[in-house]
Amino acid sequence: MNKKLLLYGFLYALGVAVYVSLIALVITSSQNWFGPATDFWGPALILLLLTLSVAVVGSLIFIRPALWALDGRKKEALVLLFYTLGWLAMMTIIAFIILAKINH
């Protein structure tokens, strides 16, 4: 097991978790900040935010593995991708457990 790749995977997954948490904060607070979305701009902004989020999260998860694969480091690229996805899955499971504990 390559500890450097494991750490990179953790940091990228943590970056995704932090970014998603910030976006969730924006979404849950948006009605207080901007009022109700009753016209064209509300759905347009949500779709723009979705597009930005896909780009940011995709970059955090896939850029380095893609660059490494193109550079001929395919095994390391796959290992990093699986470590990142594994860490992200663990963080998601932990979030579900915390949510279940809070709501019971």
Please write out the topology.
Blueprint: H1 3-34, H2 41-70, H3 74-102
Helix pairs in contact: 1-2, 1-3, 2-3
Order of helices and strands: HHH
Tally the beta strands: 0
Number of domains: 1
Overall body shape: flat
Helix-and-strand structural type: mainly alpha
State the end-to-end CA separation: 38 Å
The DSSP helix count reads 3
Uncertain stretches of 5 or more adjacent residues: none
Short synopsis of the structure:
The chain has 104 residues and is mainly alpha-helical.
Description:
With 104 residues, this protein is mainly alpha-helical. The protein has one domain. It contains three helices and no strands. The longest helix is centred in the first third of the chain and has 32 residues, at 3-34. The radius of gyration is 17 Å and the shape is flat. The model has no long low-confidence stretch (mean pLDDT 92).
Fill in the keyword field for this structure.
104 residues, 3 helices, single chain, 88% helix, mainly alpha
